[in-house]
Amino acid sequence: MKNIIISICLLSAGVISSYSQTMNNPNTNRSIAPTEQLTLTQEWDKVFPKSEKVDHRKVTFVNRYGITLAADMYTPKNITGKLPAIAVSGPFGAVKEQSSGLYAQQLAERGYLTIAFDPSFTGESGGMPRRVASPDINTEDFSAAVDFLSVQPEVDTERIGILGVCGWGGIAIEAAINDPRIKATVASTMYDMTRVSANGYFDTDDSKEKRNANRAAMTKQRTEDYRNGEYSRAGGVVDPLPDDAPQFVKDYHAYYKTPRGFHPRSGNSTDGWNVTSSLPFINFKFFEYADELDNAVLIVHGDKAHSYYFGKDTFAKLKGDNKQLLTINGATHCDLYDQIDIIPFDEIAAFYKEYLK
Known about the structure:
This protein is α/β, with parallel strands linked by helices. The protein has a domain at 54-192 and 242-272 and 286-355: 3-Layer(aba) Sandwich (Rossmann fold), CATH 3.40.50.1820. The chain is built from eleven helices and eight strands. The chain has helices spanning 2-24, 99-109, 135-150, 167-178, 193-199, 208-228, 247-256, 279-282, 308-317, 335-338, 345-355; strands at 54-62, 68-76, 83-89, 113-117, 155-165, 184-188, 296-302, 323-328. Strand 5 (155-165), helix 4 and strand 6 form a beta-alpha-beta unit. Helix 3 crosses helix 4. The relative contact order is 0.13.
């Protein structure tokens, strides 16, 4: 027994010594995190029909926080040579089987290699706990998509753009400010998630008192979550609709809660984000350096969208003659999720053609 104990102690000391040497050696532990083996649905489970003009396959890639992201890749058929590429995500709380996949497929039909990805902690992507959002990690998700596209043999590395829908429109612009590899950015029916989290809709809660009350409520919830060992969910789009629901909430319901856009992996269609997810967005401001963004941006917004003020105000912060605001007359926020006869796909493709060259 004594010899066994001595052997165990010697083994433990060796492991600790080896670990210490590894951690203190600047030439080790520099590897990109391994890609997690995710369970991905192979059958077509999108809320839009499959196009016969493009090829489709599932892909995965890892971000710099070690989270493996899942994406649908759409490649135009019968086109050879290196292609311009676009990474797509959004809306905030949606999955790639919804609006972002539709955008990706439509742009692939117009000659672009595209991926529609699930953000960290959501959909088929990895990351624990589930249904948590982060202004930093989610911005990184777009750059990780650019990392992935940059090393694909069929992609022209100098011709990569991104597209974000709804809350991911604002995240896309923030990513472009930080990542000059992104040559062209489209934000469709965009939200500024930091502004709406801190100030409420239409800035009606823009006060120290209301922000502090919001912080207090969410940090209290953090204590409860830790005590209970699980995160409380905020709920997705309200269902059933109350009689006095604002029109934009009715529009969300008509997309996320009906066969038009419902998907079982979408938080908006089901039980939503973790209650505490929006806490970091309160103290984080997008677009502080928007005037330093040199590369091209197109903001697409409907003039009947409750979110139109986000698009107009963000556009006003951008500088340069390669920035455009395209207003779609009569369009609501959710019209630009999936209404093919309203979404200006040809204009979006033309914007990318002009600036991805």
